[in-house]
Amino acid sequence: xxxxxxxxxxxxxxxxxxxxxxxxxxxxxxxxxxxxxxxxxxxxxxxxxxxxxxxxxxxxxxxxxxxxxxxxxxxxxxxxxxxxxxxxxxxxxxxxxxxxxxxxxxxxxxxxxxxxxxxxxxxxxxxxxxxxxxxxxxxxxxxxxxxxxxxxxxxxxxxxxxxxxxxxxxxxxxxxxxxxxxxxxxxxxxxxxxxxxxxxxxxxxxxxxxxxxxxxxxxxxxxxxxxxxxxxxxxxxxxxxxxxxxxxxxxxxxxxxxxxxxxxxxxxxxxxxxxxxxxxxxxxxxxxxxxxxxxxxxxxxxxxxxxxxxxxxxxxxxxxxxxxxxxxxxxxxxxxxxxxxxxxxx
Length: 346
What we know:
With 346 residues, this protein is of the alpha/beta class. It has 3 domains: 2-101, Nucleotidyltransferase, domain 5, CATH 3.30.420.40; 115-208; 211-345, no CATH class. Helices cover 53% and strands 12% of the residues. It has 14 helices and 9 strands. Strands 3-2-1-4-5 form a 5-stranded mixed beta sheet. A two-stranded antiparallel sheet has the order 6-7. Strands 8-9 form a two-stranded antiparallel ribbon. It is globular.
């Protein structure tokens, strides 16, 4: 019966996996629960099939494994699978829904990330976590010292004024017990800063070994962090029809709510990778700050639109340029052969 399988829906978890297989007519021929150690053996015995999984933690690992075995593997966004669940939620119902959803001709898929891409993204995720910890430590130190009437100007770099007071034994406005406790936070803050420095150094090594990253960094508003995040998140630029589609994938386009032939555009859709979108918008703010008046088109944009709207518009433009450089080669100001402004916009 397994020889008749043409489509397989696989619901993955930590220990228990659910398989739902269907033949070419869509009739269910396999319903089976597998343990983690049984999954690879099971799929090696199956003939090459279309295998679908929900995009979730661990899905890229299994997608690569099944692809190497010889199957055609697709990753589906979880929100596109949910409408195909016909009954209450269960592993079997989810696997059946995945199996049905992947056969839809208009279904959209998530590109499978390679191991190298994921290891770079781990650097970014750890960096984000350390930045949050640094902010928490700074806020905690500020809050505790404020209880004793000790404050410093805003901005993270001013925390050094407070740490000096904590370590100054001659500063008698801070009780000794509180000083002793706050030193733990100061030590932890320094450790976090050291780790952030090392991660930034690792990202710089990635840039030195990546021609694509170096070319992206010629774009205004794109630095080491943004360039490495973009390259590690995009599998192939050819996955997108144009720069416009890439910008839409990042959620940098208006959300449409139209009816009765009347168009109604709202705020940006915020679809896709929020981390990439945030990096591009931060980069666009730096462009507006340093080149806002020297670039005529940007100056006019700022005059007729609110600052946040202008920042998103610049981020959208940057995303299109990113796609064009990765697709056709070249650097900003010196595009590769085949690159045109129209190719990035349409």
